[in-house]
């Protein structure tokens, strides 16, 4: 079975939460248009000035998402 990977995009500043929410919309649109599977798309609220949008995917789809969307970082989901 393929590992799960969380790709993250970090947003900073007083508007970071709204920016992360907006980015989630684009992540969902991309996955739907390209007909790519995903497990979850959401936001991590770290503090008032740092929020992240993320998508959890299977490792088999990593190169497609990574090359097209240029995430800030990624982690293995355990």
Summarize the structure.
With 78 residues, the protein is of the alpha+beta class.
Q: Let me know the number of strands.
A: 4
Q: Which strands sit side by side, in order, in the main sheet?
A: 2-3-1-4
Percent strand: 35-45%
Helix share bin: 25-40%
List keywords for this structure.
2 helices; about 80 residues; 4 strands
Q: Mind explaining what this structure looks like?
A:
- The chain is α+β, with helices and mostly antiparallel strands.
- The chain has one domain (4-77): Alpha-Beta Plaits, CATH 3.30.70.
- Helix content is 35%, strand content 40%.
- It has two helices and four strands, in the order E-H-E-E-H-E.
- The protein has a four-stranded antiparallel sheet.
- Strand 2 and strand 3 (50-58) form a beta hairpin.
- The longest helix has 19 residues, at 16-34.
- The radius of gyration is 12 Å and the shape is globular.
- The model has no long low-confidence stretch (mean pLDDT 97).
